[in-house]
Design a protein that fits this description.
The radius of gyration is 17 Å and the shape is globular. The chain has one domain. 76% of the residues lie in helices and 0% in strands. The protein is mainly α. Helix 6 packs across helix 8. It is found in: Cell membrane; Membrane. It is a multi-pass membrane protein.
């Protein structure tokens, strides 16, 4: 475990706050910034420790948010659990593969994933009508396959995967967006926990950083949720701004890790 300076401790809390605020404001995508913030703002040097630590922090924050969504009846437990079970196996396999990939190659691939996420966030979201929602019309095989694949991706990169889980749940069940967001948090937390356990066994988690990130994330999430209600009319604009930030950061990561491709 790295010894953090006072400035690094403050930056870790602030970085966690940025991630929490973004998640609360936009409902997804924020955790993709957790890795570059720890690497380039806080200054941790081992990408594998960063991935393991952020996976645990994202997991804790997801479970905390799950509680509030469950109280509001925004969680459909059966599809959420069925999605998560094969995802656990996928996430574990992803961590095994991820720990085998050298640092710079892993970060190069992570940057590509960031650009993909940013593009997906810019796509218009189709609203689902509550009148056509049928709880009996569930494609269980699609849920199982999607859970396995998303879990694999989540474990490999140490991300929550909510940006894939939400459309996956909507596609396979037809559930409304708010129900998909609430249900996805169970999978996000479970995949993150699986990833974190695997990295912890290998000694690749900085527990102090996780604590700082969780504290910052909780505070940031409160302010993000408050801002979401105030800025709901400008949500589309906020999505464009945030996606642009992700792309800029990703391009920076691609450039500095370009040598990893041996070109």
């Amino acid at each position: 475990m790295a010894i953090l300076t006072v400035s690094q401790t403050i930056l870790a809390i602030v970085s966690g706050g940025v991630v929490g605020f973004t998640l609360g404001l936009l409902g997804g995508g924020g955790s993709i910034l957790a890795v570059p913030l720890l690497l380039y703002v806080v200054g941790l040097r081992d990408p594998h420790v960063v991935i393991g630590s952020t996976a645990l922090a994202v997991s804790v924050n997801a479970y905390i948010n799950l509680i509030s969504h469950a109280r509001k009846k925004n969680v459909w437990w059966k599809p959420a659990i069925v999605f998560s079970l094969p995802g656990i196996a996928g996430a574990y396999l992803g961590t095994v593969l991820g720990k085998l990939v050298p640092d710079k190659q892993l970060l190069f691939l992570f940057a590509i994933l960031m650009i993909v996420i940013a593009v997906l966030m810019l796509r218009p979201k189709k609203a689902t009508s509550g009148q056509t929602f049928d709880r009996s019309n569930i494609r269980w095989l699609r849920i199982i396959i999607a859970g396995l694949l998303v879990g694999l991706l989540s474990g490999f990169f140490g991300i929550g995967g909510g940006f894939l889980i939400v459309p996956g749940l909507i596609f396979s069940t037809g559930m409304p967006m708010i129900l998909a967001i609430g249900s996805s948090l169970f999978s996000v937390g479970t995949f993150g926990l699986t990833t974190a356990i695997s990295y912890a066994v290998s000694g690749l988690i900085d527990w102090l950083v996780v604590l700082m990130y969780v504290v910052g994330g909780i505070v940031g999430g409160v302010f993000g949720s408050w801002a979401a209600t105030k800025l709901s009319a400008k949500r589309k604009t906020l999505n464009y701004i945030f996606s642009s930030i992700i792309i800029v950061v990703a391009i920076y990561m691609l450039i500095i890790n370009f040598q990893a491709m041996h070109l």
